[in-house]
Amino acid sequence: MIADLDETIKQLLQAEIPIKNGEIDVKFDQPKREWSSRLNKPTVNFYLYDVRENATLRRHQWESVKPTNGQSSLRDMQALRKRTPFRVDCFYMITSWAAEAEDEHRLLTRCLLALFRHPILPDKFLYGAMQNPPYDIQARVANHDKLTNPAEVWSALDNEMRPSVSYVVTIALDPWTEISGPVVRTFTLTSGQANDLPRNQWIVPGGEASEMHVLGGTIRGKDKKPQAGVEVAIKGTGLFATTNDDGRYVLGSIPSGDYTLVVWSAEGKPKEKKISFPTKEVAFDFEI
Predict the structure, then answer these.
(1) Mean pLDDT value of segment 78-85
(2) Rounded to an integer, what distance in angstroms lies between the CA atom of residue 129 and that of residue 77?
(3) Which of 20, 87, 140, 286 is most solvent-facing, going by the fewest CB within 10 Å?
(4) pTM of the prediction?
């Protein structure tokens, strides 16, 4: 993944500077004294000196993945879920190398102008595993809080100090796989005084407990196709929803009891259905 990021940066510079006939090298090496002494043409070097998770963009949660199995019955479909990817910052140190200081400064300027034009790396330059990213690939150039003490870096590299610029690219690393299971159509949330949290999370026997329920279903036409834009409500509660493009709706939270579910579309008469909670019914589907 990081090697593909290197190639992405290289392709961006070759197009944006532009670099023709290999007149300028783009390298990703550790700029030690021995390395720099072997350079024989103007070079822009991106030294990757640190990689760490971006805590600001951290989202450790589950996300739903839209089923693609083509099954027509929602009851037969599988629900797909996957953890969100990690967001990782790749810290580069940019330096330019040439025979004359003026040429180095001119090359560094051209490089910075190209990078400043792209705070988000364009899709057309993305290479290999960088393609089709789950998030925009953000890049930050010359951050004031990076490389605050470059003298220590050059001392560790055993080379002479020279102008260096920070370049931080945030990429997504996805180590997770999709988990599938049956679609859950109703669920109940029970609240009350629990015993010995967090080990024993059952409600204290004889204690007061309250339950709130959430229901869902699919509205289909006589042709069995999902109906979008159909309004669904629970009479007397003020709860209502509109079906999405797949004909699905979700309503809640609802206390235990008996209710009337009402469904109506722009055309046709409303339909009603008696429902009760708690219930063993797994779906509240309608055909209109």
Answers:
(1) 77
(2) 30
(3) 20
(4) 0.64
